[in-house]
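Severity: low
Component: inverse-folding endpoint
Summary: output formatting inconsistent between runs
Steps to reproduce: submit the following structure tokens with default settings.
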């Protein structure tokens, strides 16, 4: 993922149209503001069409506005390593705890800055209209998928998740155009995960991807894509850091669905609580 967004704008500047230069000047002069803006915010401020902003992003080398915003955020927000998060083997236990918490907080803030309102609305809309929702992920992402299933089983929407990748691809082969597959992969390049995505799409299912890389196969081939942002340190992998952001995105989708599907969700939640009560003393 290229982080040189501002450099790309400057290098293309002389070849931009008048409207494109207007957008370029706006971004160059307000980079920190841009990472909190939707494409509609920019088009409204500049009195240009959303499509003009989108074409500008393509012109300077990005897939779209969201991909440009991710690159811009990565460029202007200080890396986690420079915000006290570089962990040393000389650190005390308490210091390591503090650095891990700071890292998670930074990951959440960076991811929040990447969230696009229309994208979230699209994801929630797909989930609400789904006949069945399947959550997919391998390795560490399988745990996130299971957590998503643990939550969404309360919504009243038929939900499923499997740890085993063979079970996952078998279930994907049974999806229909009325179903939704939520596919989770930090790198967006895991072969098993991408195969599951391909099978789901082949069967007509709508897909929601969660990843950290806009140029990955998962991002390029999902109907709706949600991005996380994280950094890697010597003792902590980037994928481990992204886990907290993935869980938070799942929580946000779940709560939105529960609110918009209130009556059905209330009945389902009551059944779950009643069943669970039987396991307690």
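Observed output (run 2 of 3):
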């Amino acid at each position: 993922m290229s982080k040189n967004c501002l450099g790309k704008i400057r290098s293309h500047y002389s070849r931009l149209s008048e409207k494109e230069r207007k957008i370029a000047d706006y971004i160059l002069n307000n980079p920190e503001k841009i990472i909190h803006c939707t494409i509609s915010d920019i088009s409204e401020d500049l009195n240009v069409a959303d499509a003009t902003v989108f074409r500008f992003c393509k012109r300077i080398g990005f897939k779209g506005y969201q991909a440009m915003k991710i690159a811009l955020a990565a460029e202007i927000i200080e890396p986690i390593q420079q915000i006290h998060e570089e962990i040393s083997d000389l650190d005390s236990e308490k210091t390591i705890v503090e650095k891990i918490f700071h890292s998670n907080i930074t990951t959440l803030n960076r991811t929040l800055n990447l969230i696009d309102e229309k994208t979230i609305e699209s994801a929630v809309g797909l989930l609400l209209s789904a006949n069945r929702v399947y959550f997919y992920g391998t390795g560490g992402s399988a745990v996130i998928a299971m957590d998503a299933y643990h939550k969404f089983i309360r919504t009243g929407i038929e939900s499923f998740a499997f740890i085993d990748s063979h079970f996952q691809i078998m279930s994907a082969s049974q999806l229909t155009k009325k179903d939704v597959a939520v596919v989770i992969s930090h790198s967006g390049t895991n072969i098993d995960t991408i195969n599951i995505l391909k099978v789901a799409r082949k069967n007509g299912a709508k897909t929601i991807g969660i990843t950290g890389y806009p140029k990955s196969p998962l991002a390029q081939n999902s109907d709706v894509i949600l991005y996380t942002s994280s950094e890697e340190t010597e003792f902590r992998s980037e994928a481990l850091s992204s886990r907290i952001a993935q869980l938070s995105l799942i929580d946000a989708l779940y709560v939105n669905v529960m609110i918009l599907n209130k009556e059905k969700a209330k009945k389902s939640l009551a059944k779950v609580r009643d069943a669970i009560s039987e396991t307690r003393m």
